[in-house]
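Figure 6 in text form: structure in, sequence out.
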């Protein structure tokens, strides 16, 4: 930040220069559901309350605009445990993107097993996204890189399922440079084996890039699913976990995520704590109807320096 120039006057008493601290608007995207799990779309600004680290904050921006652009990542688990569901996942995933994406939106497609593969970079071309989804293959020997794709996101794993690496790379390498609403939808059993990064690091990469994670938990009964990991990923970033045990449930789950992405309130506030300390700040967003449930991110990392 530039320091204001001090005028060079003779015999004049100058007030000391002041440096204003820049406070960035903190933006929240929130979905509200009633006790019957129906999306609530008619709330007003006065129905909401925001606090940061226990301190009430003043809402500076509010909108019910449902057409704000979305940058979306679709992450597909192609480890052996998803063998029986991959065909259904591909079909439902393609229909989901065709349904949810509007003008101004972009999506990318990533698959992960022992490696993390970028099957399509950000695009608004539905046909490119469809082809990318259909390229996904179950855990092919020798690394699984698919010829002709935009290239793998480097992970370097040799064994296991690189779920945490996929999230870390999707957020840190791809979504980090995007603005506005950002979300990842992961179709997985949430079992991770062999990632270089830990669960906490994957979550932090999403929080630092303001990315919401939704998990469609698709688990083969023979392998089971890790609901605890799925809930951590979703809860800590403001997303949802939907348990899927059939092709019909998979379609319904994609429909629910599509509805949520298109039924969000946008709220913003200037935090009273303007320290640029890089620390994590906890956010609590409430509504005045206690029968309603609010889905929004739980915090953010303050700027540093």
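Output sequence:
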């Amino acid at each position: 930040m530039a320091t204001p120039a001090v005028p060079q006057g003779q015999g004049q008493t100058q007030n000391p220069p002041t440096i204003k601290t820049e406070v960035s608007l903190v933006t929240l995207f929130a979905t509200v559901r009633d006790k019957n799990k129906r999306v609530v779309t008619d709330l007003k600004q006065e129905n909401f309350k925001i606090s940061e680290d226990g301190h009430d904050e003043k809402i500076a921006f509010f909108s019910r605009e449902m057409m704000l652009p979305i940058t979306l990542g679709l992450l597909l688990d192609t480890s052996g445990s998803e063998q029986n569901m991959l065909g259904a996942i591909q079909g439902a995933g393609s229909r989901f993107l065709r349904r949810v994406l509007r003008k101004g939106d972009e999506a990318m497609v990533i698959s992960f097993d022992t490696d993390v593969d970028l099957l399509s970079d950000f695009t608004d071309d539905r046909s490119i996204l469809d082809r990318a989804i259909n390229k996904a293959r179950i855990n092919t020997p020798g690394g699984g890189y698919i010829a002709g794709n935009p290239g793998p996101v480097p992970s370097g794993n040799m064994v296991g399922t690189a779920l945490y690496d996929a999230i870390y790379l999707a957020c840190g390498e791809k979504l980090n440079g995007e603005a506005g609403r950002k979300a990842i939808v992961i179709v997985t059993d949430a079992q991770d084996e062999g990632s270089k990064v830990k669960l906490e690091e994957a979550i932090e990469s999403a929080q630092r890039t303001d990315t919401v994670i939704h998990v469609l938990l698709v688990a083969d009964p023979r392998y089971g699913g890790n609901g605890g990991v799925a809930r951590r990923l979703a809860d800590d970033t403001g997303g949802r976990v939907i348990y899927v045990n059939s092709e019909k449930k998979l379609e319904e789950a994609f429909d629910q995520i599509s509805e949520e992405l298109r039924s969000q309130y946008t709220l913003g506030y200037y935090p009273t704590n303007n320290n640029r300390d890089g620390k994590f700040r906890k956010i609590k967003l409430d509504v005045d109807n206690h029968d309603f449930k609010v889905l929004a991110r739980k915090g953010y990392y303050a700027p540093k320096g």
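Caption detail: The chain has two domains: 26-66+269-301, 70-261.
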